[in-house]
């Protein structure tokens, strides 16, 4: 349990034993199958970590206190490691002068590099999301873990991305965890930006992601960040039902039903009536009737326009 926090197996086993034997003397902890020196080393490790209370005997601190102490120690080690990286990077650049653009080849390597970059995020992740994808089924574990660590996520989704099976539910899950999502009819390319220090852009053609560029600080990275900011400003917020639009600042009218708000939000993604009905658990005819009524109310010439106008006028 505590090994992931830097405690040895022997020290962890002794700590668990001491939870049931508070105040035990060191000599009483030595059994026939235990090396006295190993027991002494484990006691020393526990004392150094602050997991034993002061006193002649061995009394373990409470488990919740132990976890916090060990976690704090690991965080301090990480802080020191990151601080030590800066001078190493300076030497690396002076000696090796690496190319600011790295080409990654092979779908497995692209996927691995993507995971590495996401796990490196400390402040924010920006992204353009559009097909094709390295893997058909998206694993949200990394993104949710980053959101749980207060990494800010902003994503612009191309409309075709949200029509793929399961993709809309993924966006709902990420938004519930804190992601800010917006929509555009299309995007120029897929993009990942991590802490504005690294960017990843697939360069493959066709339906497979076989190659990608990883961009470090340089004028190209600055251009990619500016491109994201520009598209973000133009994109339509993927509004939650009943939430004020970030573009309009108004709340939905009282006579707009919950179902109407949800249908409007999904219209902006370009989903068909059938997909909207399936996602909301409504009948197809009910959705079709609501879509026609909403288009008439908004004076929209088509479905997607109705969704855009709804977002811009604060109906979402």
TrEMBL record:
<dbReference type="GO" id="GO:0003677">
    <property type="term" value="F:DNA binding"/>
</dbReference>
<feature type="domain" description="HTH luxR-type">
    <location>
        <begin position="249"/>
        <end position="314"/>
    </location>
</feature>
<dbReference type="InterPro" id="IPR000792">
    <property type="entry name" value="Tscrpt_reg_LuxR_C"/>
</dbReference>
<dbReference type="Pfam" id="PF00196">
    <property type="entry name" value="GerE"/>
</dbReference>
<dbReference type="InterPro" id="IPR036388">
    <property type="entry name" value="WH-like_DNA-bd_sf"/>
</dbReference>
<dbReference type="InterPro" id="IPR051797">
    <property type="entry name" value="TrmB-like"/>
</dbReference>
<protein>
    <submittedName>
        <fullName>Transcriptional regulator</fullName>
    </submittedName>
</protein>
<dbReference type="GO" id="GO:0006355">
    <property type="term" value="P:regulation of DNA-templated transcription"/>
</dbReference>
<dbReference type="InterPro" id="IPR016032">
    <property type="entry name" value="Sig_transdc_resp-reg_C-effctor"/>
</dbReference>
């Amino acid at each position: 349990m505590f090994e992931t926090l830097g405690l040895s197996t022997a020290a962890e086993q002794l700590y668990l034993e001491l939870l049931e034997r508070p105040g035990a003397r060191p000599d009483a902890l030595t059994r026939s199958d235990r090396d006295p020196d190993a027991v002494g080393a484990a006691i020393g490790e526990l004392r150094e970590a602050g997991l034993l209370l002061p006193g002649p005997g061995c009394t373990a601190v409470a488990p919740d206190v132990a976890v916090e102490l060990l976690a704090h120690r690991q965080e301090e080690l990480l802080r020191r490691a990151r601080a030590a990286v800066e001078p190493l990077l300076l030497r690396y650049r002076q000696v090796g002068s690496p190319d600011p653009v790295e080409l990654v080849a092979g779908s497995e390597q692209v996927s691995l590099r993507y995971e590495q970059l996401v796990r490196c995020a400390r402040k924010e992740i920006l992204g353009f999301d559009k097909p094709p994808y390295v893997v058909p089924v998206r694993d949200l574990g990394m993104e949710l873990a980053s959101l749980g660590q207060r990494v800010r996520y902003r994503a612009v989704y191309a409309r075709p991305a949200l029509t793929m099976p399961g993709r809309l539910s993924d966006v709902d899950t990420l938004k519930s965890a804190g992601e800010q999502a917006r929509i555009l009819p299309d995007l120029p390319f897929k993009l990942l930006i991590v802490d504005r220090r690294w960017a990843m852009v697939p360069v493959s053609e066709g339906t497979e992601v076989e190659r990608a560029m990883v961009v470090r600080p340089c004028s190209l990275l600055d251009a990619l960040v500016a491109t994201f900011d520009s598209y973000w400003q133009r994109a339509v917020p993927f509004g939650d039902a009943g939430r004020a639009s970030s573009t309009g600042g108004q709340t939905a009218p009282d006579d707009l039903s919950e179902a109407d708000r949800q249908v409007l939000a999904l219209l902006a993604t370009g989903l068909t009536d059938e997909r909207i009905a399936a996602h909301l658990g409504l009948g197809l005819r009910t959705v079709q009737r609501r879509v026609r009524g909403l288009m008439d109310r908004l004076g929209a010439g088509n479905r997607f326009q109705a969704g855009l106008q709804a977002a811009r006028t604060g109906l979402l």
